[in-house]
Amino acid sequence: MAGRLAIRSTVLRLAAGYAALFAGLALLLAGYIYWRTETYLARQTDRAILFAAETLLERHRLGGVPALARAIESRLNEEADEDEIVVLVDDRRRVVAGNLEAAPVETELTWFELEILRRPANATARRLRLPVGEAHMLYVGRDIQVRLEVRKVVAETLLWSILLAVGASILVGLLARHLLVRRLARISTVADRVVLGDLSPRVPLSGAGDEFARLAGDINVMLDRLVELMDGVRQVSDAIAHDLRTPLARLRGRLEGALRAADSPQAFRAAAEAALQEIDQVVRLFEALLRIAEIETGHRRAAFVPVDLAALAQDMVELYQPLAEQRGQTLTTALRPAACAGDRMLMAQAVANLLDNAIKHVPSGGAIAVQTAQRDGIAEIAVTDDGPGIPGGERDKVTRRFYRLETRRSTPGSGLGLSLVLSVAKLHGGRLELEDNAPGLRARLCVPAG
User: Fold this and answer.
1) Sheet of strand 111-116, all strands in order from the earlier edge strand to the far edge
2) What pLDDT, in 10s, does the model give residues 38-68?
3) CA pair distance 218, 231, nearest whole angstrom
4) What separation in angstroms does the CA of 210 have from each of 188, 303, 416?
5) Chain-centre distance of CA 40, in angstroms?
6) Dist CA 93 CA 413 (whole Å)
7) Nearest residue to 44 via CA among 126, 158, 112
8) Chain Cα centroid distance, residue 75
9) Looking at the DSSP assignment, which residues form a beta bridge with residue 111?
10) How far is CA 105 from the centre of its chain?
11) Which of 11, 55, 58, 123 would disulfide-bridge 145, Cβ 3.0–4.6 Å?
């Protein structure tokens, strides 16, 4: 439950963060639009005022105040621009010409905004104050009430747009939160059941192909692997208990015999030697387990060097040749150039295990062959024999730790030989293939060439 609440709070913070970011960007955009609109309108107003002022001042330069007054009246009557405001006042603040009944309030500012009395309602005007001659003052301006109303409309529109954007972002964030929590809740539910010890549930796959679908697939693969490992641990535990029971029972019997033969030095020595042999077998069993565990951790990758598989196979054949001849078997080779990057000691151990299995299970008079080859980027060592082989349904099982065929329980061994070979193959990025040699078995250790 705590994990689920943490997920929800994380998703909520993410949604709130995106909403705030979206609202901030909307606010910046709205502010920019408002600033650009207001600046444009103000610039256009000032340009119109300056143009009108320059035109009137030109008439004053040509004909003085009388010409300027006539130009003002003519401009107001002919052009009929209702928004334009032009007033010429004398030194007594009396209106000489213009479209205002009274002179504007006296000010020292060149540019200013002032409320004016106009019908049907008062308005705000932006004006330019210009001295004309020594006794007159010219005020040129424009009614900007419409501009102010447009600015107000733009501001209100942008404000509502921001509010709508914030509302939409919050709504989208809540929707995203709902969708994310719903999808993550499936994973959390499976995780809670796994924590309680139930490894059977799996995360439902949506088939969307997105990150969550890939995560669900990875979790399911991880759980499948975990179940496989747990089954392997149980099998190993059962196998260890089964395989150790017999040597430990024999060891106890040997030691009891040694105690009974304490008066006879020869009998005591024989019993002690037999007990030591049983102990050696148990030690070899655990050494094999430790070797497999070391291989599966991948630490041995640091010892990878170029390995000549043909030379390695030849060395192992020479080592096992006397044993094969002693058992009346024929051991031959067909070695072609093959090389890989790997741990030579582990590769030699893997080949030794394959040869040892073949020699133990092939009857007298049988034939064993070791072959090496390299093609299509794969280097391989194959050990073939014409012995009893392994049934097709058992080939996937014999690589499990301690797994032994029922027909071979009486044969000495721990059931770890092929497990070690498979671990070596995986360490080198390769595979172990067990095939029917018709008759017999063909074991192929395949690794990337290098």
Assistant:
1) 95-98, 84-89, 136-143, 123-132, 111-116
2) 888 888 888 988 988 898 888 888 888 888 8
3) 20
4) 18, 39, 42
5) 48
6) 125
7) 126
8) 74
9) 128
10) 71
11) 123
The span from the CA of 295 to the CA of 204, in Å, is 35
Amino acid identity for residue 445 in this structure: L
237 pLDDT band (50/70/90 cuts)? Answer: low
- Rounded to an integer, what distance in angstroms lies between the CA atom of residue 383 and that of residue 349? 14
Partners of 87 in beta bridges? 98, 139
Q: Is pLDDT of 88 > 60?
A: yes
CA distance 325 to 329: 5
243 CB neighbour count, 10 Å cutoff: 19
Nearest CA among 416, 426, 390 for reference residue 405:
390
Tokens of 400: 């499990």
Q: Per-residue DSSP letters for 107-165?
A: -S-SEEEEEE--SSS-EEEEEEEEEETTTEEEEEEEE-HHHHHHHHHHHHHHHHHHHHH
If we measure between CA atoms, which residue out of 326, 253, 298, 290 comes closest to residue 428? 298
What the block records as the tokens of 47 is 């340009």
Nearest 5°: CA angle at 172, between 33 and 206? 140
What's the Rg (C-alpha) of the chain?
49
Write down the pTM of the prediction: 0.46
> Which residue, among 209, 226, 213, has the nearest Cα to 186 in the 3D structure?
213
How many angstroms separate the CA atoms of 112 and 149, rounded?
A: 18
**What does the CA dihedral 124, 125, 126, 129 come to, rounded to 10 degrees?**
-130
Q: Distance (Å, rounded) from C-alpha 217 to C-alpha 234?
A: 26
Task: Give the residue from 419, 389, 408, 394 showing the smallest Cα distance to 285.
Answer: 419
Which residues, including other chains, have CB under 8 Å from residue 213's CB and lie 6 or more apart? 205, 206, 207
Whole-angstrom distance, CA of residue 232 vs CA of residue 227: 8
| Distance (Å, whole) CA 106 – CA 72 | 21
44 HSE (CA, 13 A, CB side) = 9
CB atoms within 10 A of CB 406: 7
Check pLDDT > 90 for residue 308. yes
The pairing of strands 367-375 and 330-335 is parallel
Token pair belonging to 168: 């939409």
Which residue, among 215, 225, 375, 220, has the nearest Cα to 309 in the 3D structure? 375
